[in-house]
Each structure stands twice: as C-alpha cells, then as structure tokens.
C-alpha cells in the first residue's frame, strides 16, 4: 500500500477505524491451536493459553515473515514453526533459538492486540500500535442486562461491510424486501423520516409509526460501533417484548464482511425459558430466512453501486452515517499527521 493510499479516508474506512473494539469471530472459532484469520486489513493469529484466555498477534514472524499460525503454542507465547522464534502475547520476542542473545530478543517486534470475550464472541481492540491496556468494552444494555436474553447469529457476506451498515440504517427496506416475513408485513408503504440525536449517536425513525414494523434504527459509538432495531412480534412469537437486534460489523477484506447480529428479547423467568425453546425450535429458521433475503440482495449489488445512487428522503440516515464515519476517518488521519 502506498503512502498516498494510506492518506485517504476511504482506505481507513475500508479496513476499519482504529482504536475501537470489533467483534472478530464467535468464541468457538478459537481453541488451543493457533488459528489464522483476516480481519481489519490484517492477517491475525489467535490462540488460547492454558487458562483459556484468547491472545492475538499479527500473523507475521519478525524474523523472516513466516506465518505464526503455523507455529506451536507455548502458553502465552507462540513459537514460529519456521525457525522456532518465540513471541509473547504482548509482541515481545522472548527467544531466538538459532541465535541466542541477538538484537531481536527482548524487542517488541510484533503487533499485539488486546482481546476479550462477551456474548459468545471474541472482541479485538484495533489499536494503531502496541498499547499496555485497552479501554473497557462497553456493550449496549440488551447484551449486558440480566433483564434480556439473546442469541448470537454470525455469518459472512460477500462485499464491503459498509453495505451492511447501509442496509441496517434503512428501515424502509423491511416493508418491501421482508414483506412476507411473519413480523414485517404491516405498516404504511410510504413514510417520512427524521433524525434524533442521542448521547452516543442518533436514531433514524419513521414519523407517526412506532412498534408496527421495522420503524427505526439506532447507531451508537461506545468505544465500539453498534446498531439496534426493534421489530414487534405477533402473539405466535411467544412471551416477551419486541424482538431486538443488535448488530456490529467487521471488515474481513474489502470483499468480505463478518456480520454479527444478537437477537434479543426483554424477559425473565419462565418467559425466558419459553422464548429460548420457541426460538431454537421454530423462530430461528424464520429469522435466518429474512437474513438470507438481505444477503442475497447485498451480494448481488455491484461494488460501485453506492457511487451511482439517487438518494431521497428515506436515505437521510444513510447519508448522516456515511458523513460521520468519513469524519472519524479524516480525524484519524489528521491526528496521525501531527
């Protein structure tokens, strides 16, 4: 990548903004053996130590550039399979067996990343450089409060992750694309929208219609970027309040996105148990069918579709979000240039 390309907001957004938490993969993807995966414009290696804690490094040995994911896990260290160079989870080279005492030993030569686990996912803090501590992960209430129950839905979609952001920031598509859904068949087929600011972001909502269809989307920044929407359930959806979806999206490459949706409801006691049983045995398949409609639509869009648009009032939320993200990217570039 050239210096000129690095200095564009588009490139920053393509690979993901820095100094944010991102969901990387479901927890079950990583075990004791090293796993290589591409995320956020990087090739990473992840593994668990003997206590089950997840560690992440750039998948690049500082000696000759061999993939560390082909190496051997030694607790909180990983030994490169090419020449045995050992790198600790904080990126420090602890041993060079082929040349003991060389300058590489003791140097912090590998980009290390802080990780944590929550709600069935592994999260990674996308720091610009090695840092001693990462800020705490601040999730939305529906993923932290005991008053809610949730299921993680993970998938990967072909295309830029920003098309997924646009899709969720577009409540009106539910009225058309998902009109055969058991929960999105009602409501007006025309609507006016407004933007309402919040302490952590904004809500894009239909005027005069609430709790009828997919009527609003919230976007928030709490040290991670997340989106929230609610869809009213018919009585056949079981006990509890509206069906809540929390979404967070991570670039794998410019042509592939990691898509995380937590499907939530506010309920407790026997209602929680009833809904969880009903979800796994009846509702989950219906929700996957709705998600497949989104996937098929987005994957069939041309990569430059967002450069040949004719936007109108329904798209105010998309425009606001795109401008905000571009502003964050430019601020990141300006800070790096200081």
From TrEMBL:
Ranges for domain Rieske: 21-124
Keyword Heme listed: no
GO molecular function: 2 iron, 2 sulfur cluster binding; dioxygenase activity; metal ion binding
Keywords: 2Fe-2S, Dioxygenase, Iron, Iron-sulfur, Metal-binding, Oxidoreductase
Protein name: Aromatic ring-hydroxylating dioxygenase subunit alpha
Organism per entry: Paraburkholderia pallida
